[in-house]
Amino acid sequence: MARSSGILVHISSLPGKYGIGSMGDDAYAFVDFLKDTGQKYWQILPLGPTGYGNSPYQSYSAFAGSELLISLDKLVEDKLLKPEELRDLTPFSERKVEYEKIGLLKSNLLKKAFERFNTSFDDYKEAYYNFLGEHSWWLDDYALFRALKEYNLDVIWNEWKSDYKKRDAHTLDKAHLQYAESINFHRFVQFVFFKQWFDLKQYANDRGIQFFGDLPLYVSLDSSDVWGNQNIFLLDDEGKPTHVGGVPPDYFSETGQLWGCPVFDWNCLAERGFDWWMARLHFCLNMFDMIRIDHFRGLESFWSVPASEKTAINGEWRPAKGYEMLQNLKSQLGELPVIAEDLGVITPEVEKLRDDFNLPGMKVLQFGFASDATNEHLPHNYGKNFVAYTGTHDNNTTLGWLKSATTKERKNLRKYFRRSRHRALDRVIEACWGSVAEIAIMPMQDLLRLDAKGRMNVPGVASGNWEWRFRWKQLRESRRDFLKEITQKYNRG
Prior knowledge:
The chain contains 18 helices and twelve strands. The chain has helices spanning 25-36, 72-77, 84-87, 99-119, 125-151, 162-165, 169-178, 180-206, 224-228, 266-271, 275-287, 322-333, 348-356, 398-404, 407-417, 424-434, 444-447, 477-489; strands spanning 4-8, 41-43, 210-215, 243-247, 257-262, 290-293, 301-306, 316-319, 338-340, 361-364, 386-389, 439-443. Helix 5 crosses helix 8 (180-206). The longest helix has 27 residues, at 125-151.
């Protein structure tokens, strides 16, 4: 793997006119920016439709795309919307995603587009039927799930009537007929999403830019995946988790993180030949050129917390079967274009799992200054087979971190860079780019020199996250030049 670099920014954080970033012209302009500055990777957070809290790591589906990320202007180009339907929309904030407002707007406009799609169906018939042929194995359950959630006033599936909850075949057959219009609407939305996604991906790949995706280890309890595959999760007879995932107390939280996601029944997965995981991994590797498995350590052993607990403190480590699962994938693909998110409590067994499959791990420079010169997150301790980050979507921005650094961190920073704090941010970025790690990534906020107000997510905080957006005017020419210069200087172009 050649030395290279890239930028982490979610689609939702892109500029745009309609309250949220989308797969429209600004996404294509971002690809051009990456190419012009010598980058190879655009790292993107999960793309699924989100529920309460708007977290891309809590999605209604491990496969579906979020309708919020669909470009309305592209629908005008496809003659599924009329220009005047967008012209007089109420202005949206350019600085943050207004989820509730944009959700209602896009739902109404997508329904108009669906009506026109049905009216001129012959123009789309071949492409649409090809899409259904390729995706029906997950799409049928997802579309029915969304239709049933609407019918049940959005309550979680394990509170539906028993026949729906337990997937009685006769009841579901009747539901397909009863809710056909809603089901077909959700199929249409996914047809549009994937068309726009692969058009954008083709544009990026043609210009040498690779999409670097993010695959959460767990899926949301309130998802079509859990509803449709209840036996591969630790659930009781009523579809409620007996145990949930999380992590013990760590850098981010004194009480750990309690995610609320059901944990896998790895014995059942193994009996099924890991079929669900194989489908998910192949799907994501078709969507992206490379993927990061979030919470990779959960493939070796996972922190299992009784569902009745209020924090993640009283959990236990239980063995997973990730080795067998990755071995299965490797037998099908050969080399795996997979990055292991190996942060947190990492054991020799987790490192062995990562290294046995030659998967790059992660280093986060912000973590490097809390101890001494042996800290594994300091650039001089990196190995080649790693992705070096200034910070991640879960961290403060690097400038925000520098401003709030502890006394010990500030002392170590001065010692490490042997200068005052003037231009400390750029020196931190350069240290990442200059490291021996084969890939270097920084969040867009760091390139823009944003402080804590630009933070994307605060782990453990339920609301107010995932809202950050940037504006093109923030990307000054001097910052473009800086990125291009360090990319050339450290042989990452």
